[in-house]
Amino acid sequence: MVKFLLSRPIAVGMTFLALLIFSIILFRTLPISLLPPIDVPQIVIKVNYPNSSPESIEQNVLSPIREGMVTLNGLQDLESKAGSEVGDVRLTFDFQTRMELAYIEVNEKIDRLTNNLPQDMPRPQVVRINSNDIPIVRLQVIPKEGVDFAEVSLLTENVIKKRLEQLEGVALVDINGRQEKVITVTPNKPLMSGLGLREADLIRAINDGNSELPGISVEDGQFRYFLRLASKLETAEDVGNLPVHGPSGNIVTLSKVATVEHTLSKPTGFHLFQDKEGLVVTVHKQTSAKMNETMPLIYEAVELFKVDYPQVDFELTQDQSSLLNAGINNLQTSLLFGGLFAFAILFVFMGNYRTPIIIGISLPSSLVISFMVFYFFDISINVISLSGLALGLGMLIDNAIIVLDNINRKREEGLPLFEACVSGVNEVQSALISSVLTTLAVFVPLVFLSGVAGALFYDQAVSVAAILCVSLLVAFILLPLLYFLLFKNKEKSAAKEDSRLFKGLLKGYKKVFQGLFAHPGWSLMFLFLLIPLLLGTVKFLKVEGLPPIEKFDVLISLDWNEPIDASQNKDRIQSLLAQLEGNFTVTESDLGLRQFILYEGENAIQQADLYLMFADDEAKESVSRQLKRFFRQNYPQASLAINDAPNAFDQLFNSNRPYYEVRLKNLESKRPIKASQMNQWMEQFPVETWTKGPGLQEGSSVIFKTDLEKLALYGLEVNQLITSIEQLFGNYLITDIRQFGEIIPIQLRNDQLDFQTLLKSNYIYGEEGIAYSLNEFITYSYDSHYKYVTSDRYGIYQSLNLDVSEPTKHEADIRSWGTERDLAVDFAGQYFQDQETIKQLMGILMISILLLYFILAAQFESFLQPLIVVFTLPLGVGGAFLVLWLTGTSLNVMSAIGLVVMLGIMVNDAILKIDTINRLRAIYQTKDGMETRVALTMALYHAGEIRLKPIVMTSITTILALIPVVFSAGLGADLQRPLVFSVIGGLTIGTFTALYFVPLAYWFLSGQRGAIKF
Predict the structure, then answer these.
(1) For the whole model, what pTM was predicted?
(2) Domains of the chain
(3) Where are the alpha helices (DSSP H) in 185-281?
(4) How confident is the model over 346-385, as pLDDT tens digits?
(5) Residues linked to residue 608 through DSSP beta bridges, in sequence order
């Protein structure tokens, strides 16, 4: 095959050129994003029910929704959480579920349930979770001093949002911090009392004045006209000019007995930027969009906003494209330094400049052609797929060096150039195919992991498979073709001798080789003893999901654990920021209820998230200590969590689920257990270290009790009292003014006084117009209540989160404790998901090792020789663990990828070494007629000489190409450094393994005993 292709160099060259051009065209169409578009199998149903308690939301809203959702196809888990005024139901599906169909089905069920839900509640929102839900950037919109905030809210909603959504690549624009303009009517109660007017008279006057005819038409000859009432309200002045009829027939203008004004609605949440109130706009990209093209469009649009809307300040923050740029820069750096070092190493070892040029052409060609595979497999260019390409670069360089070195060696043996190219490729062809197949056998099965990990590995597996398969195509066709063309005019000249450096290296290798084989049994035993010693260093490694990235920003999540309103929450945050002023560079806060459509976290008025960016790590640590001290002294009851600000990786990998959760259910009442009873029981709980889950967290409340007997005695209706309380304490909506899609509510507003005073100074009227103070019929008391009601598909539960190293060993004691108190006990949490993932991973790795063994058994036609390759892997892994431990690096996702990179190269070297030994042994026995023992000795010796150059060159080239990352700074270097340490540690030991362990193990398995003399 190689001979046939090399005989037609022009046709082969043009074919490769056409492939490159076609791949470049396809590459320009590939979407570029931070992460692959992962369909997380979760849907969240969000409920907003103002002025409702957690118990009311659970009973009237969430319980019917849960009952309606249990029959969903593919539903795996169902949980709900009810808080004050808000609630959510989280649906988790099997990972094979088609989420677009599940989303439609959930919406259909919500529509069917509408009649069973409270009529005054807005329709629940259905949010589908996707990796693209992570915003690529946040736009801060801050009104300048004196500018109407409501007008800026309208500008952001109707103009800024629309203009951003029109940009190419933008899928969704989400807003938080909006405030609506309302018309408030505040009665002058002493004056109204003197005129004999009541609040009901004001409400009736406004409703009558805002009436509209329901589409009545009249005919006037041949024309038809629609009737319209001229009394339709449009402004606050129109409301103030309405006539109010009193009980005695007197008429007074509404503005005489009440204050009517445009104002902002009572806020339930705020957004702050640099201590100023504003709005935040999050921008989400389309799945197929290129982030590196979308982000410049957003920056350009914001510059136009600054010119067009000078009354507003604009600022872009938390740009997530920096992560993608870091990944692309790392790949570019690897290519640049890999090419430079490959050139230098090849020049030093081979003494000519043509061979490095061949590799310089083959590396980028392989990468570009790999992108064609991306197109056909619908893979985007993202950090995960780029890491797969970086993973395959080591194997790519390895294959190129092996092929070129083998061709060079054939020329040194005296073969003509054409025959050297053909023979050099054919000799290593089967071994290289086997090495690629074994690498894929180790890596590709990881695609079958469930959950997000399996979805991420799909992109990486496809990119690895693409570049490895393309590397074989390049190694077998393009490399010999380029070699043939570049050395065509040099065919008569002998190949240059090895450099002095390599001769010195070869001399040292022979000495060590002869020393080890003087006592091969002891040498092999020593190497086998190294395996447990090196692998044992894993006990000293810290295990993390992602490597610790140097971050100068933090996210402070706090819950005041007090029944404060949003304005008080804002005042406290602003006071806190004033004390910290000068210690940070950027601050951003989301307080109270979030208005984001895609927000699916906890939502409570007394909560806040505070983002702080610092100039350096010292300021970050200083402020963290200052914050803890501030809250300990001023708000000891507040819950405070200070963490590094999450990036897109953190938001995707980190789970909101507790690590290990104990769920308790009341079997008798199927309702939450009273706090007093639960606190008493928890004193005998068998585990000491635990924290309360949401269903056990308590908050203060005021309980109104109605005296029904007194109401009946005075001839009053309960509904009258309820209406009076709603008008007094709630944002009582009288009616709406609707103009061209704009809705302005008209609300009744009372004095902002404490509730005791309001109850004394407000009245309810009997049949004869007799006024009775509200406090005559209402008694109040203070009490604590549960802030949340949590439920799953089986009903209401309350939970504890255990903080112990081995949580499962306490299960029996906890179940016994629950049985004594007639409680059903269940266990849940991320712990069980992690255990399932580990089981899957172990099973997949066992399958990978079996596949590797079967492939090698077919390659070597032996059941024993594949064991040599299998036993080289622990040595490489142990070497990687040793370097990770010495450098203080954790075992994380990136270091694990480095292990796969290193093992791929190690397997490649071991396979080629064994293949060469087998081939030489057969030659010495059949052609030269040597005895078995002598043939084995010569094969082991000469195979080491032949494979020394490619093994050493591959290791040195790969290690030197990665060294610059160790001394670099920044986000990209922080991500890649664990990978680099894994590769360096594994290849350092792996090179020694391929040079000495493989021949020693081969000798042992051959059945020959005793020392060997060379």
Answers:
(1) 0.71
(2) 2-33+324-492+501-546+834-1005 (1.20.1640.10), 39-129 (3.30.70.1430), 553-646 (3.30.70.100), 661-724+751-832 (no CATH)
(3) 189-195, 199-209, 236-240, 254-257
(4) 677 766 677 777 877 887 888 888 888 888 888 888 777 7
(5) 558, 591
